[in-house]
Amino acid sequence: MLKGISPLINPALLEVMDRMGHGDEVDPSIVPTRTLYTGIRMPAIGLGTFGSDSVSNEAIADAVVGAAAVGYRHFDCASVYGNESLIGRSLRTVMDAGVAREDLWITSKLWNDMHGEGDVLKSCQQSLDDLGLDYLDLYLVHWPFPNFHPPKCDVSSRSPDARPYTHENFMKTWRQMEQLIGNGQVRHIGTSNVTIPKLELILRDALIQPAVNEMELHPQFQQQELFDYVVAHGIVPVGYSPIGSPARPERDRTPEDTVDIEDPVIVEIATKHGIHPATLCVKWAAQRGQVPIPMSTKRRNYLANLTSVCGDPLTAEEMQAIAGIDCGSRLIKGHVFLWEGANDWRDLWDLDGTITT
Ligand SMILES: NC(=O)c1ccc[n+]([C@@H]2O[C@H](COP(=O)([O-])OP(=O)(O)OC[C@H]3O[C@@H](n4cnc5c(N)ncnc54)[C@H](OP(=O)(O)O)[C@@H]3O)[C@@H](O)[C@H]2O)c1
Fold first, then answer.
1. 14 lines ligand 1 (CB under 6 A)
2. Rounded Cα gap, residues 35 and 188, in angstroms
3. What CA–CA distance (Å, rounded) separates 168 from 349?
4. What is this structure's pTM?
């Protein structure tokens, strides 16, 4: 529970705080952690902060305070989510209320239009200023392409400046990421939305290895090969859209998409454990070994997700049954990052084991 709440906080947040102190909060010290190659531990679950174009920035910022109050210490942010300054106010509230900065784990991400020379430092500093922090625990290259698209654009639009992955350019961006560690602005750096062939080159050429790879992971999209590769290289997998992103933007939907929380195996095991299928997805994720970052703005839901990773483990048979429902159902396909001349979204994911150019 938060103690000693500052009287200076945004009145909208007071409402959230009024609902605190139910006695059902989770003691952050019992939340499992994952150890990075630096020896530093990160909480094994975080709160996602992308409103998917449908949840307001204010609702997300309130959820950050509410989630901290129930025991979350890890928040997955990004400049492109457009809410870091509001989240910064929430983090100030949380810290004013007695949570130490060193007990928080804050991630942010470099957006695709800021890969250029000098831009990485600028963008990271902007996120630090917005979040009101002196350092980030983790800074990720959000996508390995410098391909920008306007918010809410049509999925079939192709920016004339968009390009396929160019390793030489990515390494120029990565060198700036490495500099952020030297500057003390960032404690760890990492990748997101990369594939094995891209990672092979990045690991070969990086002076500072990625500590984390953030990737789409949910029961019907387990990416076992990439998951194993990442773990074998001492990189912690962070799993985004762990519930299958049921409220994702329209641009990320296709008719063949599957729905994890309606899968009969998920529904049956969730019922056995007396939890919502969404919560089971989070529980499975943490037990498998990735760090899930579910987004929720509802106290009941974000608390259930946190509680689920702290006890009542799934049996080996249940884990095996869930392993069996993977059907390769990628939901966040990335259409909007395609370049002119690309076939379709599969070109972003190097399906034949070589980098698509
Ligand atoms: N690196 C990347 O490229 C990337 C891409 C996508 C996402 N992300 C990160 O991953 C985070 C999570 O992914 P996501 O937001 O796409 O999807 P998600 O976490 O799989 O799903 C979020 C949805 O699930 C609902 N939900 C959460 N807990 C629930 C529960 N216990 N019971 C019932 N419903 C529940 C939420 O609704 P309520 O609010 O009603 O609970 C929300 O609509 C993002 O917020 C972002 O931080 C990163």
1. no
2. 12
3. 18
4. 0.95
Residue 172 is assigned to a structural domain of this protein? yes
53 lines ligand 1 (CB under 6 A): no
Q: Ligand 1: does its nearest atom lie under 6 Å from the Cβ of 178?
A: no
- pLDDT tens digits for 206-216? 999 999 999 99
**Does residue 354 fall inside a structural domain?**
no
Please state the domain count of the chain: 1
CATH of the domain at 42: 3.20.20.100
Pairing type for strands 33-35 and 41-43 reads antiparallel
Mean pLDDT throughout 254-282?
Answer: 97
Q: Around 179, how many Cα atoms within 13 Å sit in the side-chain half-sphere?
A: 14
Residue located nearest, by CA, to atom 48 of ligand 1? 240
Distance between CA atoms of 165 and 304, rounded to whole angstroms? 39
CA of 127 to the centre of ligand 1 (A): 21
Q: What is the position in ligand 1's atom list of the atom closest to the CA of 55?
A: 39
Domain range for 161: 11-348
